[in-house]
Design goal:
heterodimer; A: 380 residues; alpha/beta; Beta Polymerase, domain 2; 17 helices; 58% helix; globular; B: 317 residues; alpha+beta; Phosphoenolpyruvate Carboxykinase, domain 3; eight-stranded mixed beta sheet; six-stranded mixed beta sheet; 36% helix
C-alpha cells in the first residue's frame, strides 16, 4: 500500500523524490478523495508548483478552479440563507465547510462542498423548517422509514434542497444524534459561538468546538469514503488555532471534557499526528489520550478499522476486504449513536428493505446516457 | 507508436491486462476492458492514434463485463472511472459507445483548465469554426462531411478553449459519433471513410462512429484560431441559407451549451466574451451537404484572403 496523500501532506517536500508514476498515483488518490484542490493549495503554499510535472499540474489547477467556485457559491448561499431566516430572530450557527468559508479559515480554500450545514436551537427547528419551505426549500426524497428515523432519533431533519438553486441543506439542532453515547449539551455550543463579521445572529462555533465537532462528526459517522479529507480539515484547524491563541491546547482538552467528547478528540489528535504529521505538543497529546479510553480489545478493533477507513479512497490503498472494513465502520457508527434495542431493527431494515426498494427504483430509472443528459446534469 | 502497429490480439491482451493508454490531443486515457467489441472498435477507430506507456495517464477507465449469471441473461457492462462508478450498468452491445461517452464524462467533469462547450469544431487555413447545436440539428453529419472533405476535425462534441490561451481551440481528434439517418447519409456521402459497427440503442435509435481523418490526428497537438461560430439547423428540403446572428444571442446560447461556464465564474464570462468578439456568428440552415461545404469554404477563404492581404499590405509598407 502506498498512501501518497498522507506522505505529501505530512511532508510536502517529498514530491521532490517523485517519479512520474508516483504523480499518476498521487493525482488519482487525491481526485477520488476529493483532495485535488487541497493538494494544489498545499503545493502552492510550499512553493512547489514549479516542481510539479506538466502532466499532473492541469489536474490540480482544474480542481482548484472548481473548488474556488464552490467557495464562492457557499458564500452566496450563506447570504441567501441569512436573508431567508432573518425573520426568525434566532441565532444560526454555521457548521463545517460553511463555517470555514464564513470565518475565512484557510481550511476553506481548495475544498469541495457537498452541502451546507446550519444549526438552530431545537425549539426553533420547526419554525426554521417552515420559513425555509416558504423560501423555496423542499424536503428531499427520503422514504417514510428514513423520514421517521431522522425525526425521531437524529440531530438533524432530513436534508432539504432548494428548488431553484439546487443546494442541499442540513438543518441541525445539535451536533450528534440524541441517542448517542456522547451527549454534548447544545446550549453550551450556542453560548460559546462566535459572531460572523458583517451579519447579525449568524455564528460559527468557537475554535475549540469547531475542532471537537469536526472530530465527533468524522469519528462517529458511518461514511468513511471521504474521511481523509475531513481529517485534513481538522489538521488545518490544529495548525491554525494555536497560532491565534496560546491557551488553545489547554482549552481544547478542557472543552472536550466539558462537552463529553474526550474520545473523538483523542482519535483526532492520534490520526492527525500519525497520518498528517500535525504538530501537536506532547503534553496536549498525552492529556487527550489519558482522558479517553485507549485500552482493551474493542479499542484495538476500533483502531484497526479507523486506520483502514482513513486511507485514500482509492484501490491502491485498499485490500480485498476493504468493503468489509467500511461496513464494520458503518455498523460501529450506529452502535455509537443508538442503544442496542434500536440498532438491530434499524440495521435489519437497512440490510433487507432498503436495497429492495432501491432496486425497484433503479429499474424504473432510464438506462441510457448521452451527452445531452450529461450537459443537463452539469448545469442543474 | 500507433495502435495500428499492434495486432488486434495484442490490443485485446493489453486491454485485458494493465490497460492501454491512448493519446488524443491534450489528454491521455487508459482503458481496461475484457470485452472483445471494445478491442475491435479501438483497433479500428483509433488505429492512427499514438499509444503511450502507462507511466502517467490523465483518465483511467474500465469497461468490463462481470462474470456470473448476468453474462447470459440480458448481458450488461460496468463502467468505472478509476474504481468509481459514476453511472449504472449499460447493455453489452453499447460497450464501445460507453467508452466514448465515459471519456467525454471525464473531460467535462475534470478538465477545468479549459472552458468546455458542447459544440463541434473544425478548422481550415488555421481558422476554427465552432458549431454549437441542439440535438437533431445535423451538427454531427455536417462535421463528418466537412472532415471528409479536407477540413481538419478538432472535435464533434467538445470545444476546448484553454484558459491560458483563450483565443484558440485545442483539438481532440476522436471518432465522430453518428446517429440514425446520418449513418446512411455519411456512408453514402463518404464511402472511403472508416465506420465502426452500428449498434441499436433503445433510447437513441442506432449509433455508430466514424474514424477521424489521419491528417487531423497527425495535427492533434496544433491548436486553431477562433474565427467563426455557426449554429447549424438541418431542415428537410431547405435551401442553403446563412445569416448573421447577434453576438448577444450567440453568447447566451453558447453559455447555455457550456459544461463549465458556471465553474469558471468571471473568468468564464471574460473568455466567452472574447471568443464571441473574435468570431463572426451565423445562423445556418441546410439540407444539401455539398452546398453547405461550398459555402463554408467560401466563408473561410474570405477570412484567409483578408488576413493574407492585410499581411501583404503590412509587409509592403
Amino acid at each position: 500500500m502506498k498512501n501518497l496523500i498522507s506522505e505529501v501532506f505530512s511532508n510536502p517536500e517529498t514530491i521532490n523524490h517523485f517519479q512520474l508514476n508516483d504523480w499518476d498515483l498521487l493525482v488519482r488518490q487525491a481526485r477520488n478523495s476529493d483532495l485535488a484542490g487541497k493538494l494544489f493549495v498545499l503545493l502552492r503554499d510550499n512553493s512547489l508548483l514549479s516542481e510539479t510535472p506538466k502532466q499532473a499540474l492541469p489536474h490540480l489547477t482544474s480542481a482548484h478552479v472548481h473548488t474556488q467556485r464552490h467557495g464562492e457559491l457557499v458564500k452566496y448561499e450563506i447570504h441567501q440563507l441569512y436573508n431567508e431566516l432573518s425573520e426568525l430572530d434566532t441565532p444560526i450557527i454555521l457548521l463545517k465547510g460553511a463555517a470555514y468559508v464564513a470565518a475565512n479559515l484557510p481550511s476553506a480554500e481548495g475544498r469541495f462542498f457537498s452541502d451546507i450545514d446550519i444549526m438552530v436551537h431545537k425549539s426553533r427547528v420547526a419554525m426554521a423548517e417552515d420559513a425555509l419551505q416558504h423560501k423555496g426549500w423542499r424536503g428531499s426524497d427520503v422514504d417514510d422509514y428514513d423520514e421517521k428515523y431522522y425525526r425521531t432519533w437524529m440531530h438533524e431533519i432530513p436534508p432539504m434542497q432548494h428548488s431553484k438553486r439546487g443546494t442541499t441543506l442540513d438543518l441541525h439542532h445539535t451536533i450528534i444524534p440524541e441517542t448517542a453515547r456522547y451527549r454534548p449539551d447544545a446550549n453550551k455550543l450556542f453560548k460559546a459561538a462566535i459572531p460572523v463579521d458583517g451579519y447579525e445572529n449568524l455564528y460559527t462555533l468557537c475554535p475549540e468546538d469547531m475542532v471537537l465537532h469536526s472530530a465527533t462528526h468524522l469519528f462517529s459517522e458511518g461514511e468513511f469514503e471521504l474521511s481523509l479529507r475531513d481529517l485534513i480539515d481538522i489538521d488545518a484547524l490544529l495548525r491554525l488555532f494555536p497560532t491565534q491563541n496560546q491557551q488553545f491546547w489547554q482549552r481544547l482538552i478542557g472543552r472536550a471534557r466539558n462537552l463529553d467528547l474526550k474520545q473523538p478528540l483523542h482519535y483526532a489528535l492520534r490520526y492527525c499526528r500519525e497520518l498528517l504529521n500535525t504538530p501537536i505538543p506532547d503534553q496536549a497529546y498525552d492529556e487527550a489520550r489519558n482522558q479517553a479510553a485507549t485500552e482493551g480489545p474493542s479499542q484495538a478493533l476500533t483502531h484497526f478499522l479507523l486506520e483502514r477507513g482513513l486511507r485514500p479512497n482509492h484501490s491502491s490503498c485498499h485490500s480485498s476486504l476493504h468493503g468489509l472494513w467500511l461496513w464494520m465502520l458503518y455498523v460501529r457508527s450506529h452502535y455509537l449513536r443508538m442503544p442496542f434495542k434500536l440498532l438491530i431493527p434499524h440495521l435489519l431494515h437497512k440490510a433487507l428493505i432498503t436495497p429492495y426498494e432501491e432496486h425497484k427504483r433503479d429499474r424504473e430509472a432510464a438506462k441510457h446516457q448521452d451527452i445531452h443528459t450529461l450537459l443537463a446534469l452539469r448545469n442543474r | 507508436m500507433t495502435i495500428r502497429s499492434s495486432h488486434l490480439n495484442e490490443i485485446s491482451e493489453k486491454l485485458r491486462g494493465d490497460g492501454l493508454c491512448l493519446r488524443t490531443g491534450p489528454f491521455s486515457v487508459r482503458v481496461q476492458s475484457n470485452i472483445q467489441s471494445v478491442a475491435e472498435c479501438i483497433h479500428l477507430l483509433y488505429q492512427h492514434h499514438p499509444m503511450q506507456n502507462l507511466e502517467f495517464c490523465d483518465y483511467h477507465l474500465a469497461i468490463t463485463q462481470p462474470s456470473g449469471l448476468r453474462r447470459w441473461f440480458r448481458p450488461q457492462i460496468n463502467f468505472e472511472v478509476d474504481g468509481m462508478i459514476p453511472f449504472k450498468p449499460m447493455p453489452l452491445d453499447q460497450a464501445y459507445a460507453t467508452f466514448e461517452w465515459g471519456y467525454n464524462y471525464c473531460i467535462s467533469s475534470y478538465a477545468h483548465q479549459f472552458l468546455i462547450i458542447h459544440a463541434a469544431v473544425v478548422e481550415k487555413h488555421g481558422f476554427a469554426m465552432i458549431m454549437p447545436a441542439q440535438p437533431g440539428s445535423g451538427k454531427s453529419t455536417l462535421t463528418a462531411a466537412l472532415a471528409s472533405k479536407g477540413w481538419r476535425l478538432l472535435s464533434d462534441e467538445l470545444t476546448l478553449i484553454p484558459i491560458e490561451n483563450a483565443d484558440t481551440v485545442v483539438p481532440l481528434a476522436r471518432p465522430i459519433n453518428l446517429k440514425n439517418a446520418s449513418i446512411d447519409v455519411m456512408r453514402e456521402y463518404a464511402p472511403e471513410e472508416v465506420f465502426g459497427p452500428t449498434v441499436s440503442d433503445t433510447a437513441k435509435g442506432t449509433v455508430t462512429h466514424m474514424r477521424a481523418p489521419i491528417s487531423s490526428i497527425d495535427r492533434m497537438n496544433e491548436p486553431a484560431q477562433q474565427k467563426l461560430i455557426v449554429f447549424p439547423q438541418y431542415h428537410r428540403n431547405s435551401p442553403t441559407q446563412i445569416k448573421p446572428r447577434s453576438k448577444a444571442r450567440a453568447f447566451m446560447e453558447i453559455a447555455e451549451q457550456s459544461f463549465n461556464f458556471n465553474i469558471h465564474g468571471k473568468t468564464g464570462f471574460d473568455i466567452l466574451n472574447a471568443t464571441i468578439s473574435n468570431c463572426d456568428c451565423y445562423d445556418f440552415r441546410y439540407s444539401n451537404l455539398d452546398e453547405a461545404i461550398e459555402l463554408f469554404d467560401q466563408l473561410i477563404e474570405q477570412q484567409h484572403y483578408s488576413k493574407e492581404s492585410a499581411r501583404l499590405a503590412e509587409s509592403s509598407t
